[in-house]
C-alpha cells in the first residue's frame, strides 16, 4: 500500500492499494468521531461494492446507511444533491458523523458537496472505484453538481477526511471506463517530467496501477499545496478541460468526461503546434498515447459549437479564458485569452 499526505487547509491521507474497500471502516474509525455513516453510491456501483463497505463499517463499530441514485453525469443535478441531503437527515447524521462516497467522480463530486452543505459540514471519506476518480477527482477537494447552464456550476472546495483507492476495483473496470482514467493519467504526465512520464513511456503503467495512481496523486497534491483554491498553478490540471467540458455539453453528456478530455488535449496540442508553441514530436507523443489507450483524437463538433458551449464554463473569468497548452511532453503553460482567441485555437485544433 502507498500512502500520500495531502497538505491543504485540512491535511489528509490518500491510500492506494488492493483490498482497501474491505478495510475502510478500520481506517476511517480513528478519524471520525461519530459512528453513523451514510454510504453514497450510484445504482451500478452499489451492487458491486456496497455490502463490502457496509460490512467493513459495521465491523469497525459504525451504523451504516445507504443512499443510492441513478448512475452517470446526467444524475449530477441539484435534485440528486437534495435527495442525498434528505437521506442524511433521515438517518439522523450529525456533524460528528461521516459520508462515504463510493464510486467514480460523479459520486465524489455530489456526495462531497452534500457533506460540505449538511449542517454546515460533515466529514467525507472518498472511496473512488475508477482509475479516473482516483487520479483526478479524489484529490484537491473540488465538489459540484451541474446546472442546465453548464458543468460543475454549483460547488465548493472542501477537503475530504480520507481517500482510499482500492486498485482491485480498477482491475475489474470495463475497457471503456478504464480508458477514461488513462486519459487523465496522460494529462497528468504532460505536466511533469518525473516518474509518471517514465511509467508511460516505458509501457509499465498498465501493469503497475498502484505506482501509476500514486505518481498522479503526487503531481496533483503538489499543485493543490501551492494553489488550493484554483487561482494559479493548479489550473495546469485543466489541460484539455475547456474543450472537454464544451464537448460534453454539446453531446448532452453522452460523451463521457475521460473521452472528452482526450479529444480536448488533442485539440489544444494541434492548436499549439499550429501557433509554434510546441514541436511536432509533442503532438505525435500525445496521439500515440491516445491510440494506445483507444481514446479519441477528434470530436464531432465545430469550433462555433464548442465556443458557444465554452462560454458557460466555470473556468471563464469575465470575458477571459485561461487555457492550458503544451510546450512539450512534460511541460505545459497557462495562456490568458479572450473569446476570439479561444475560437481561433478551437479552429486550429480541429
Second-tier CATH architecture of the largest domain: Up-down Bundle
* N-to-C series of helices and strands: EEHEHEHEHEHEEEHHHHHHHHEEEH
- What fraction of residues sit in β-strands? 15-25%
SS element count, helices: 14
Termini gap:
42 Å
- Unreliable stretches, pLDDT < 50, 5 or more residues? none
How would you characterize the largest beta sheet?
7 strands, mixed
Radius of gyration using CA atoms only: 19 Å
Number of E strands: 12
Per CATH, what is the topology of the largest domain? Dehydroquinate synthase-like, alpha domain
CATH class of the largest domain: Mainly Alpha
CATH superfamily name of the largest domain?
Dehydroquinate synthase-like - alpha domain
What value does the average pLDDT take? Answer: 95
Total domains, how many?
2
Structural class: alpha/beta
Based on Cα principal axes, name the global outline: globular
Instruction: Give helix % range.
Output: 40-55%
Which strand order spans the largest sheet, edge to edge or round the barrel?
Answer: 1-2-9-6-5-3-4
